[in-house]
Amino acid sequence: MKWNHWSGFLTALTLCVFILTGTAFAAFPDVAAESPCASAVAEMEDQGLLSGYPDGRFYPARTISAAQFVTIAARCAGLEPVPAQTNHWAAGSLQAALQAGWYDWDELPPTGERFNLPIPRQLAVKILMRAFLPEVRGDYLTESRKINDFARLDGRYYEPVLAAYAAGVVTGDAQGNFNPTGSLSRGAACILFQNVLKASANGGQPAKTHESVPTPAPAVGTAQGGVSENGWLQVIGTQLCNEAGEPVVLRGMSSHGIQWYGQFASAQAIANTARQGANLFRVAVYTEEGGYLSNPDAIFQKAAAAVDAAIANDLYVIVDWHILSDGNPMTHLEEAKTFFTAMAERYKDSPAVLYEICNEPNGNVTWERDVRPYAEQVIPVIHARSPKAVILVGSSTWSQDIHLAIRSPLSGENLMYTLHFYAGTHGTELRQRLDEALKAGLPVFVSEWGTSRADGSGGVFLKESGEWLDFLAARNISWANWSLCDKNETSAALRPGTPPDKVWTQEDLSESGRFVFGRFR
Ligand code: IDC
């Protein structure tokens, strides 16, 4: 390829001259001292991070291109250019940035056709956060409130933009708008660079002070370690507690059906999840749909292998009898007893294992007539072998009828009621139900929830998910997210085609996965 961008060539030339001589030019004549970007430009220029045009001017009001922006970022980060696909003057730095994971292939294809286009603000911020503050996360509710035009932000950029607001890298315009798809002037870009470098030197704390925005109260006094730290769990009042009686919150992933996606319940996949901060894994043992009932021995072995892998990673683990198309748990009562007898026998000495006896009763099923009597038969099977085990019980309407259990709760120790939600389908009303249950003294465990609609697709609904998770956190309620697999549905935490047996990077996570993994701690 040949030089096809004359202005780029000029900029490159200037950069080279500048870098080679290391000359610190006096302030650019076209950056007025009173301009908002003057100090940022001067400081960066002093440090040899900026260059002007061949005529010695900086042109602060000109739109910054993707190539210019990434080149400056690379220089700030000390990222060396690498061989690239095109002869564009900035291709080497862009290729290095791509390989460093600062952005995705489709955002700035290495074939170069977007290098000279204005860089959208949301992408610019993502690159800055990946490059300089990769550990920073922004609380969804706190930060999104600072952004008037939050609805215009592409979900792909939620995480870095919220983090950038949290770190004080971005503050928005006079109207409180972020203008996610708008461009940046060269002067404004310098201010962003200066902010991110200051926040990075400051350990990710805001470089400046900001308007105070109320933060939801953090869950107080809860432990979130693994099994070695917390030991046997116990339910005290409505709260799940550790062996010492201190409140504990479990957060993690549910597998998809292990008859289909058992590879994502492998030791490596579970270790990957644990490494991200989860202390819980849920093993979904479908009954029908090709699950346990089709091949009890093989599915039992698969489930046990996943439980073992979770234990090896110091996670708590839920053994989930995943009834779904068989809406009434009574339909397979005998098989459930056989299954839980064997599981509880096998894990009777392990403090890691929780038992969920009926995923989601549905259809023509009531708590009183079907679910409660089922629970009264299955719970003793488990407690006879593992007397201290925590047991999770579902309810009719896909484990949403928790209000019906209030009227006739189960008796016994260490029992919790599950509540399942999907952020694109369920909201305030179900949360009120949850509060009603707590008020009535029922301990609640959200053993399955999704960022999607209830059908596992649509969305993802990250704003709604954030509201739910904040609500749960404020009440110390434990949760498992549906689901850890690479199926082509939005609720899946991994991108289609992600290999189960490698250490995952952020690039392997779907939009949902990134959000959820970011909320384990
Ligand atoms: C969905 C899966 C989907 C699968 C379907 C039927 O995401 O790939 O085809 O089950 O097996 C639940 C269930 C859970 C559902 C999930 C999303 O517990 O099995 O998984 N969901 O629809 N309850 C509410 C939603």
Shape: elongated
Uncertain runs are 1-25, 207-221
- Main sheet attributes: strand count, strand direction, barrel closure: 8 strands, parallel, barrel
Nearest-integer average pLDDT: 89
Number of strands: 10
Under CATH at level 1, the class of the largest domain stands as Alpha Beta
Q: List ligands, each type once.
A: ligand IDC
Q: How many domain regions?
A: 2
Computed Rg: 27 Å
Short note summarizing the structure:
The chain is an alpha/beta fold. It is 37% helix and 10% strand.
Please give a structural write-up.
The chain has 521 residues and is of the alpha/beta class. It folds into 2 domains: 6-201, no CATH class; 227-517, TIM Barrel. It has 19 helices and 10 strands. Helix 13 (333-346) packs parallel to helix 14 (367-383). Bound molecules: ligand IDC. Ligand IDC binds next to strand 8.
Give a topology summary.
Layout: H1 6-21, H2 38-46, H3 66-77, H4 91-99, H5 121-132, H6 140-144, H7 158-166, H8 186-201, H9 227-230, E1 234-236, E2 239-241, E3 251-255, H10 258-261, H11 267-275, E4 280-286, H12 296-312, E5 316-322, H13 333-346, E6 353-356, H14 367-383, E7 391-393, H15 396-399, H16 402-407, E8 415-422, H17 428-439, E9 444-450, H18 462-474, E10 479-484, H19 511-517
This protein binds ligand IDC.
Ligand IDC binds near residues 359 and 360.
Keywords:
binds ligand IDC; single chain; 10 strands; alpha/beta
